Amino acid sequence: MARLDVEWLAFTAGLKPAVRRTADPARAEEIVARFTREGAVVLRASRTAVLGGREQVVLYAARSHDLAAALRDAESSVLPGHPPVGDALAAHRAVGRALGFPACCVDAFCARLARGVDRLVDGGPGGHAEDYISSRAAWVIAPDARVNPLLMRAGAQLVSFYPCRFDCARAVALAESLRAVVAARDAGAARGLMATLARAVVIASDGARAQVVVEAGAITRAAAPTREGVGDPRDVALADALVGAVVGDDGAVRGVDPVRGEPGWCVRFDARA
Question: pTM score, two decimals?
């Protein structure tokens, strides 16, 4: 599948008011130069963020200095890797608005943030991956593959936020608009992207995930998502453990995460195929 910078394409098509990008410090100037050549105003966060234990430069691109500055300033008190300052929920809402995310999805994220993004319930045990928590909250019987957010690190996405539900009408409308833009530019890439997104995904509570085939309620095939042919070792280990596992009607996949005591969760993005 051809690799397209879908976030940037959404911005240039007018579907997003701004773009937030993180980069290794050595690559930041290259990205700033490319975005500037393509007509964006690009500002840096006043300090680096820490993501996955790595120091990252945070860049904000918009069509005007005011829009880029508004996004930068909104996130300044809640940069990853630093203690939040002031009203963190208000800051995250402002960031979501500046990036053009649906208000309902921003509200759902803020509700999880107030509870603890690593907790399933108020006062419950923490330590779960944020993607796992958001997937369980958004789970529906027939999710829409266009809003599949679980393959971002494999480079496959239309949305760059956690939908409040995997059939959220606002999120689906935004994703469909972008799919149409991608298709107009490269029909083959759009078909390949949708074929990737429209597969069932199991996510474990540590954030490991695998694309699976479910037949008669059981997983018959499983594979780790890959980017340029490389899969995360945690994803590979999960895929190896999944074949033969039973998927409950609620999405629960029992027995794949005994350490944290929570089941894996299967999102049937193939349900509408």
Answer: 0.91
